[in-house]
Write a structure and sequence with these properties.
The complex is a heterotetramer, with two copies of chain A and two copies of chain C. By secondary structure, chain A is of the alpha/beta class. Helix content of chain A is 34%, strand content 32%. In chain C, β2 and β3 form a beta hairpin. Classes of the chains: A alpha/beta, C alpha+beta. Chains in contact: A-C, A-D, B-C, B-D, C-D. The interface between B and D is medium-sized, with 12 and 13 residues. The complex binds adenosine-5'-diphosphate (2 copies). One adenosine-5'-diphosphate binds next to α2 and α4 of chain D.
Amino acid sequence: MNPQTQTRAKVEHNGPLAILRFEGDVTSASKDAVLGTYQKLPPETKEILLDFSKVQYLNSSGIALVIQLLMEANKSGQKVQTFGLTPHFQKVFTLLGLTKYTSLHPTESAAKAAFG
Amino acid sequence: MNPQTQTRAKVEHNGPLAILRFEGDVTSASKDAVLGTYQKLPPETKEILLDFSKVQYLNSSGIALVIQLLMEANKSGQKVQTFGLTPHFQKVFTLLGLTKYTSLHPTESAAKAAFG
Amino acid sequence: MMSKALTDREQAVTTELRLPSRLGYEKVAMSTAASVAGLMGFTDDRIEDLKTAVAEACINAIEHGNRLDASQTVLVVLSIAENTLEVKVVDRGRGAVKSSVRVPDIDRKMHGEEDLRGMGMFLIQSLVDEAEWVNDKRGGSYARLAIHLDREKEVSDEPSDPD
Amino acid sequence: MMSKALTDREQAVTTELRLPSRLGYEKVAMSTAASVAGLMGFTDDRIEDLKTAVAEACINAIEHGNRLDASQTVLVVLSIAENTLEVKVVDRGRGAVKSSVRVPDIDRKMHGEEDLRGMGMFLIQSLVDEAEWVNDKRGGSYARLAIHLDREKEVSDEPSDPD
Ligand SMILES: Nc1ncnc2c1ncn2[C@@H]1O[C@H](COP(=O)(O)OP(=O)(O)O)[C@@H](O)[C@H]1O
Ligand SMILES: Nc1ncnc2c1ncn2[C@@H]1O[C@H](COP(=O)(O)OP(=O)(O)O)[C@@H](O)[C@H]1O
């Protein structure tokens, strides 16, 4: 038994838009799910939506992986919008400054609309 | 600080019908909320609806109080219907035999309808 | 369950909780047990069953074992070995005996012929896969509950990348 | 908080949890701490803050303090005294120092000028009312977190009938 839950990530593509839907915990064990999934996106991806609505637990090591994703997306000129975080994790993302590189939205449609 | 949560009971009357809505935990500390509330019902009460939809935790001492309520209602010729129990506590009530003296319903309207 | 030689990976992994003998603290044991069972991949309804069984065992330890003496603690030992979660609830009293498990007779209760209480041990026994009460003259007595993961039915998480 | 003479009712009431040094078990500490905070009447959002702080302290104890050594345990001591919930997370290592708390600079992280990790202690400090790190050469080092009930704002349950 491994007490660290495996993170699952489902990906949906739609032209330049990719939606990454995470499930499970986002921790140090989530490297594949977060970065691996990001790195496998097709090169035409310009807009990335991160869906945390099925994630109940994130810790600082998991958030470090999200920051790395934001860093790589930033380098590639991709825009990232985030939704589905609980109010608590919205606060945590804000405390850690991630909101400078991704906006936090209450719903998927609000997040999509933010790409303009 | 008292680590046993106080149980609250709200009562609604409608002619012969009384609805007892419990909130909080139902434990050995719930005597007033369960039996006290029952005993203060007006004498014309013939039908009693027990609402557990805001109760998250019941233990065997709390259930003993519910059995005492059923006993007193039975003696007074009152009918009791129950709703709002989680599937787990439906199982517990069934295991303990309470379902012989009160039926468990999924919704308030189903419970009301059962008075016929 | 510990009968065959265990590899390192399969050795019991233990979590211990020590609670004050105060009614209400059984809820802390419920949360802790639920969380450990969650790590193992038990389904929500098995976890609900376990929580109620653990609560009843802790209430008995607080009330009957330690007689509500705030200076005594209740020890809850949660051990994972292979597919089994074992929970021991230890108190400082003389312990319960299995023969105290009474199958409640609701008709007798309704007619005042049987104590309204006395349903805890029956509930424990009904809700877990194994229940026993051990009378330990030296170390304190305990209730021992166990549940088994049914790997065929319950979908535990795949082991994740050890990183 | 223990400075004035305490009546019996106000003496610290302690719950202890002992966890294996395995990542993932911090979730058990989160559940236990949330449950104790719930007994005290803390609001859900304060409990969420506490859970994250406790998780980060346990992860540090597991990773840095006990270096993932499965034979070492992490001890979590939860004490209630008056309106304060204090959580000590004790490990067997040399302990953290307050000066290790780094305010993360997201711009530097985004430009590869700062380690992506190193946010745990900052989070702990941001989410609880008190945080300190104590280097105890004998008994193991600990992180000490505390949150205070604000009786004006938080509606704790009225004491119930002691029965
Ligand atoms: N931990 C214990 N220590 C001593 N006696 C116990 C313990 N647990 C149970 N018992 C005994 O067994 C009886 C039945 O317990 P139980 O079925 O849980 O019902 P209840 O606690 O409501 O009486 C108790 O009344 C008590 O006499
Ligand atoms: N319990 C501990 N024992 C020893 N060192 C610690 C402990 N907690 C934290 N530290 C030290 O403080 C540093 C910062 O910790 P933290 O902010 O939680 O970030 P991270 O754990 O991601 O490095 C750690 O890298 C470690 O060197």
